[in-house]
Amino acid sequence: MALHHLLRQGFSWLAVGLKGLVMMSVVTGCADRRFNEMKSFNSYEDAIKLTFITLNELALFIPETEKRKAVAAQKAEELSKDRRFEELKELVSKGGAGEQYELANCYFDGQGAVRDLPEAFNLYRLAAGQGHVESQNKLGICYHNGHGVKRDQLEACAWWSLVGTTNLQAQASLAFVQADELKRMTPAEGHLFTLAVAQRMDELRQEIRLRALSNGPSR
User: Fold this and answer.
1) By percentage, how much of the chain surpasses pLDDT 70?
2) Cα separation, 157 vs 193, whole angstroms
């Protein structure tokens, strides 16, 4: 009798657990069928079989749900980038270096806009001319790699030299590229290249200083 009681109690617990699974299966669209199947089973085998079927359906459904969530999140992120891109296009007309740099990144990376390296370069140049350090570093990258402009290692090194110690990436890039250029030159050529970089850096610094005096400090 005790064994029979335990079996009946176990069967009841299994039924309760299965009801919970069936309630979860509502999201899979098969709840009505599962409730009807519950009414008909009268053995452990039926209950276990139905449990595994329901678990299998949930196992298939949950990854699909996560996939839909990821797609929705990606669309929301893209919409946010599109809106920010439109905002930046309006703000850039006011001449803010920070907005010019951010919009340049949009064109450079193709975020919210079709990738346009020449346009990105032009915006980096505008911001760099106002003393925007990150834009000056990006100009060095553009000149070094030929992004939106003809490759020019002297110009790249001049912009990175202008940045100085305020940007570690610019420092590292300058050291690497300058060393790479010098090892392909004779000592005399290397000396001239180094002098040319320093002269160009001074020209850029003077250009930025004059602009600051005529237009006021950049934002």
Assistant:
1) 60
2) 10
188 C-beta neighbours (distance < 10 Å), count = 8
Dihedral angle computed from the Cα positions of residues 99, 102, 106 and 108, in that order, rounded to the nearest 10 degrees: 120
- The reported pTM is 0.62
217 vs 117, more confident? 117
Residue 95 CB neighbour total at 10 angstroms: 14
Sign of CA dihedral 106, 107, 109, 114: positive
CA separation for the pair 89, 111 (Å, rounded): 13
Element at 142 (helix H, strand E): helix 133-145
How far apart, in whole angstroms, are the C-alpha atoms of residue 144 and residue 173?
9
Phi and psi (nearest 5°) for 52? Answer: -65, -35
Q: Residue 133 pLDDT > 80, yes or no?
A: yes
